[in-house]
Amino acid sequence: MDKMPRWADILLVPLISLILAAAISALVILAIGENPWNALKIMVTGALGSTYAWGYTLYYATNFIFTGLAVALANHARLFNIGAEGQAAIGGLGVALVALYLPWPHWTLALLGATAAAALFGAAWAAIPAFLQAKRGSHIVITTIMFNFIAAALLNYLLVGPLKPSGTMETATAPFPPSTHLPSFQDMFSTADTPLFRGTPANVTFFVAVLLCVLVWLLIWKTRLGYEIRAFGFSEGAARYAGIGATKIIMVTMLISGGLAGLMAINNTMGEAERLILNAVEGAGFIGIAVALMGRSHPLGVFLAAILFGFLYQGGAELSLWTSIPREMVVVIQALVIMFTGALDNMVRMPLERLFARRTRSTPLAPPGPTLHPPGRMAPPSTPAAE
Amino acid sequence: MTNLSTFLGATALLALGAGAAIADPAVIFDLGGKFDKSFNESAFTGAQRWAEETGGTYAEFELTAEPQREQAIRRFAEQGYNPIIMVGFMSATPLGEIAPDYPDTKFVIVDAVVEQPNVRSVVFNEHEGSYLVGLLAGLASESGTVGFVGGMDIPLIRKFGCGYAQGVKAANADATVIANFTGTTPAAWNDPARGAELALAQIGQGADVVYAAAGATGVGVLQTAADQDIKSIGVDSNQNYLHPGEVLTSMIKRVDNAVYDAMTAGEAVETGVQVMGVANEGVGFALDEFNQDLITPEMKTAVDEAAAQIASGALQVHDYTADESCPALTF
Amino acid sequence: MAVASQAQHQSPETIPAIELRGISKAFGPVQANKDISIRVMPGTIHGIIGENGAGKSTLMSILYGFYHADAGEIFINGQRATITDSQAAIRAGIGMVFQHFKLVENFTVLENIILGAEDSGLLRPSLARARRELRQLADEYELDVNPDAVIEEIGVGFQQRVEILKALYRKADILILDEPTGVLTPPEADHLFRILHNLREQGKTIILITHKLREIMEITDTVSVMRRGEMTATVATRDTSPPQLAELMVGRKVLLRVDKKPAKPGRHVLEVENLRVVDAKGVERLKGVSFSLRQGEILGLAGVAGNGQSELLEVLGGTMRATGAVRMNGQPLDLSGRQDARARREVGIGHVPEDRQQAGLILDFAAWENIALGYHHRDTYSKGLLMDQAAMRADTVAKMGRFDVRPPNPLLAAKNFSGGNQQKIVVAREIEARPDLLLIGQPTRGVDIGAIEFIHKQIVALRDQGKAILLVSVELDEILSLSDRIAVMFDGRIMGERVASQSNANELGLLMAGVTGEAA
């Protein structure tokens, strides 16, 4: 039996962590002579208070959903994919090639083509570290980090040289043709009288991301492959005993993970910039790690955590726009949230568990029994999550 | 800095919605941030000078993500800030798309050309300034080998390197120019340790003058050069004072002036392309009490002569970005 | 015999080393200990026996300060003691040797012994003193270990001695050992018992927690039996017998011998010829093993752990490469590693692995997911692209019913079942797949007496359906009572084969030690 009811584990712990992070952030803001209550108001209105605000928050969240899902899926096979950054960058290359060099009659077809290309390129970028892990035992953390650098170098070469239209200073490809432009939320939801989501980058890709949350959930908990991935992640010995091949699982998991990371490019490259920009991923691959951690590797958790980080990004931008809180401080606030929800999770969890244990003792109806199992932190979520 | 009153005004406006005209200027710094020891910081210096001299206030924003370019431009425009000044060539495409939406707002972009009626584009002839410091480097070098440390390998920095190499070759046709770039991610602009490594490597290959065009990374280059007792050349702002007697000169790029001028002109800022070259003192080399002993009278004569020829058009320094090739240096 | 009969052979004036009076402890609605009173006399070995979950470990945890009793008192040497934490227990002279050792793997023996008991911030004097005392203790109690050996490089038997030394170094007069032989080979267990005898001779008091009747009978002076949180009896060991203890533990009569008819062997199912395995370090683990197995018979592989039985099971189960030849139902098996465990299942080989926690189960999976492990690709569990989870759950409920898995909750994670019920899940899965050949390793390790009886019955029933069974166990009793034929392994070879009904423990014991019949 677990020490806490599941709702407490999933909702209460992150919520308390967030409140703690917010409290410390407030102290920091106070220390630099700003009003934390105003700062919070600006963040909330700026990130959630209007369709404009949501247009940015959901745009960032879309990026983080893709990379968060990528990291989360790999986590289930106990593979730590730190390479989402590079895989997303290379995914962008795939999108750019498809959008620039193939004629597309309509954006729907272009979206399909770009999806295939982004996933394929991202997967290909994950394939080599995966192969090295499966066949040579080279640690995936090291190789995926290295591949981030290689991806950056490759894109730098391409965007300074072959893919850059001559005569411009910008390290970016030419703009994609209009037939590949994805409908933004503004296009989709505005009416003649009421413009909504005006000028914001959120676009149809958000729905692709939501769909992928569902698909990844199905994959992890409802399919044979997901069963094998989880089995492998929980116990390599038991997986071998069950005839689940390590090579196959490592390769397949990393290919899907890389593909998911690569798909982020549909959002930022095709949906927002409408051209491939150097360094377009901007750390979303690394935020994906925090998102997966906070979302406990569950697609629903990833979705919620991605929204939270989207809020932090957009709220942080508004904070920089309208206060003299420097952008470094915004990074500090974001870091506090990551620290409390990810790294310091046990700080909140342990006292809560004790609290619940005490409560359980006095209420005879609650489920019985303490166990001496340590709380399984980095572990993928336990099975009942599938219910 | 936005003070409390602008902040409160802004929030009040947020509540009221767009429309009211504050007519304060706004500055949008690029991803490096306003303390990048390079052109963002130079822009910040210009804005501060304006604020101190006039007592005016301005709004500012430091980008942290690509989509914020459009976001910041629109937000400032909707709040009535005018003119809106941004530095960095990556804002060119977003500005080109957004400027027509706000015909009553004036925009200033530094380091790129945006052809819209309400945009002033300020570009610098970095190749000319780099030519001059290259000439000095070629004359000062005893080994006949000089170095160039760039930040990220992007066309703009190649433009610096190419102008520099032409200057070196003009002084000594047999000279060797070693060019290195710090990295392939934006971290390359802020990696003094890597800058130091590259400088050491170039010194190992015989370089006795190194030119750093790499933002804060250049601090490491200049430090290493001083430690190894060779000459270095600073960039963007006058960095001669960092190591008196060790920094040969600095290639000055007056982004601060461009920002200061635009803010002074205010809403009446003249639009169109403004080229800042040697002729109008937009770029140049620094000579002050810290390096006067390093520049011999012969060198001074030669570099002044070259500057005059460039200003008059008699000497054409090749611009790498014109055709993406460089006659004097292979990247 | 259900009522406690106080069998005290000490004189009345002797003060018990430990006395617990009316200890109760509840976890939520579960009453782990109910009004338990016990007197442990100094200089005796006192056994506490009971099935998993009977409350033995809770009781000892209270004594050692891990839990606090809801009610009751503790007296140590006649003095009332409040034991708030393990430090207090150590001060009171109590030492505990856990089932899972609490040692720092990459420290040396000496470093582990002084860990937490250093004299000062400087290590050197502590180490020097510890080294002297260690030598003394080693001589006194036959507890020799190399003080400079690193823990991860010594065997479990030695690691356990380090735990005992740790307790003695901290001046413990009362030693509690929790299931100490669970991880030991028979010779190691014998050595442990010698050590315990020596400790008792020196006046130490020992509490031995176990569920193995043989150990109780062999070395304890007094035995207390626990069932469902209650102390059902305390008796002098010489006045009781295994069947009586088993009945007290389980609450009903238990059959300790396996009841089976003579085997009726059919055609050959498995033929193994000249099997060789070289491990990653280049050590030859199997050195040319040959045997065969027929329908309707149980072949028991006896041997001290580590003599190649595990490797043999793994090769046949498809998780280890080998050279040689194996034919299953006349068809050769690929031993090169190209055929995995799944391919083995396809040709009718079921496998209950030796280590259910590392291989047989995924502890974090629910029971219904574990029921499919290894068979998850089969059509019965599929519905189009997805797994048929309803079918998996229904199947789990059915198997849990037939194998009496408790609690019969298919949603519960495997780690939350007791050892015996975990094993029942594995056995249910493998037996109900009706394999032509069942490989079964350590079928009853860490399993309660009641469950042992049940699992043995199921194995015999499978045999009687004409299936072949290869049984590996380090429990000689189990091999002797279940097998039809017995092969003894030593050093990667089969030393000899015997017909079970015509063999005995002595003969097999000699073979297990590598002494062949001719030489003896």
Automatic annotation (TrEMBL), chain A:
<dbReference type="GO" id="GO:0005886">
    <property type="term" value="C:plasma membrane"/>
</dbReference>
<feature type="transmembrane region" description="Helical">
    <location>
        <begin position="241"/>
        <end position="264"/>
    </location>
</feature>
<keyword id="KW-0472">Membrane</keyword>
<protein>
    <submittedName>
        <fullName>ABC transporter permease</fullName>
    </submittedName>
</protein>
<feature type="transmembrane region" description="Helical">
    <location>
        <begin position="53"/>
        <end position="74"/>
    </location>
</feature>
<feature type="transmembrane region" description="Helical">
    <location>
        <begin position="204"/>
        <end position="221"/>
    </location>
</feature>
<feature type="transmembrane region" description="Helical">
    <location>
        <begin position="300"/>
        <end position="317"/>
    </location>
</feature>
<dbReference type="Pfam" id="PF02653">
    <property type="entry name" value="BPD_transp_2"/>
</dbReference>
<feature type="transmembrane region" description="Helical">
    <location>
        <begin position="12"/>
        <end position="33"/>
    </location>
</feature>
<feature type="compositionally biased region" description="Pro residues">
    <location>
        <begin position="365"/>
        <end position="387"/>
    </location>
</feature>
<dbReference type="InterPro" id="IPR001851">
    <property type="entry name" value="ABC_transp_permease"/>
</dbReference>
<feature type="transmembrane region" description="Helical">
    <location>
        <begin position="329"/>
        <end position="348"/>
    </location>
</feature>
<keyword id="KW-1003">Cell membrane</keyword>
<keyword id="KW-1133">Transmembrane helix</keyword>
<feature type="region of interest" description="Disordered">
    <location>
        <begin position="361"/>
        <end position="387"/>
    </location>
</feature>
TrEMBL record, chain B:
<protein>
    <submittedName>
        <fullName>BMP family ABC transporter substrate-binding protein</fullName>
    </submittedName>
</protein>
<comment type="similarity">
    <text>Belongs to the BMP lipoprotein family.</text>
</comment>
<keyword id="KW-0732">Signal</keyword>
<feature type="signal peptide">
    <location>
        <begin position="1"/>
        <end position="23"/>
    </location>
</feature>
<dbReference type="GO" id="GO:0005886">
    <property type="term" value="C:plasma membrane"/>
</dbReference>
<keyword id="KW-0472">Membrane</keyword>
<dbReference type="Pfam" id="PF02608">
    <property type="entry name" value="Bmp"/>
</dbReference>
<feature type="domain" description="ABC transporter substrate-binding protein PnrA-like">
    <location>
        <begin position="28"/>
        <end position="296"/>
    </location>
</feature>
<dbReference type="InterPro" id="IPR028082">
    <property type="entry name" value="Peripla_BP_I"/>
</dbReference>
<keyword id="KW-1003">Cell membrane</keyword>
<dbReference type="InterPro" id="IPR003760">
    <property type="entry name" value="PnrA-like"/>
</dbReference>
<keyword id="KW-0449">Lipoprotein</keyword>
<dbReference type="InterPro" id="IPR050957">
    <property type="entry name" value="BMP_lipoprotein"/>
</dbReference>
From TrEMBL, chain C:
<keyword id="KW-0472">Membrane</keyword>
<keyword id="KW-0547">Nucleotide-binding</keyword>
<keyword id="KW-1003">Cell membrane</keyword>
<keyword id="KW-1278">Translocase</keyword>
<dbReference type="InterPro" id="IPR003593">
    <property type="entry name" value="AAA+_ATPase"/>
</dbReference>
<keyword id="KW-0677">Repeat</keyword>
<keyword id="KW-0762">Sugar transport</keyword>
<dbReference type="GO" id="GO:0005886">
    <property type="term" value="C:plasma membrane"/>
</dbReference>
<dbReference type="InterPro" id="IPR027417">
    <property type="entry name" value="P-loop_NTPase"/>
</dbReference>
<feature type="domain" description="ABC transporter">
    <location>
        <begin position="270"/>
        <end position="516"/>
    </location>
</feature>
<dbReference type="InterPro" id="IPR003439">
    <property type="entry name" value="ABC_transporter-like_ATP-bd"/>
</dbReference>
<keyword id="KW-0067">ATP-binding</keyword>
<dbReference type="InterPro" id="IPR050107">
    <property type="entry name" value="ABC_carbohydrate_import_ATPase"/>
</dbReference>
<keyword id="KW-0813">Transport</keyword>
<dbReference type="InterPro" id="IPR017871">
    <property type="entry name" value="ABC_transporter-like_CS"/>
</dbReference>
